[in-house]
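Thread amino acids onto this structure.
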């Protein structure tokens, strides 16, 4: 075999502890990703549940603005009547 060709191989120099550590890190990463996905799903469910509330709030804001404008017109008429 020529020195230019380096093939990867598992020697006995890689201890079982290193393999276990790598396996544990991979498992921890998968658990973390699963929990993150669950949190994202929960937040999405909450957002979807709040969508009707946001729509009603927008309607109420529009109605409040219309009421304010109406009240201003009434007050202006009362001032002119004095």
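Threaded sequence (82 positions):
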């Amino acid at each position: 075999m020529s020195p230019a060709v380096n093939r990867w191989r598992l020697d006995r120099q890689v201890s079982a502890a290193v393999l276990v550590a790598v396996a544990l890190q991979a498992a921890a990463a998968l658990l973390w990703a699963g929990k993150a996905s669950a949190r994202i799903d929960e937040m999405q469910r909450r957002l979807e549940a709040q969508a009707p509330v946001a729509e009603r709030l927008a309607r109420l804001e529009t109605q409040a603005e219309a009421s304010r404008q109406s009240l201003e017109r009434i007050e202006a008429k009362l001032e002119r009547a004095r």
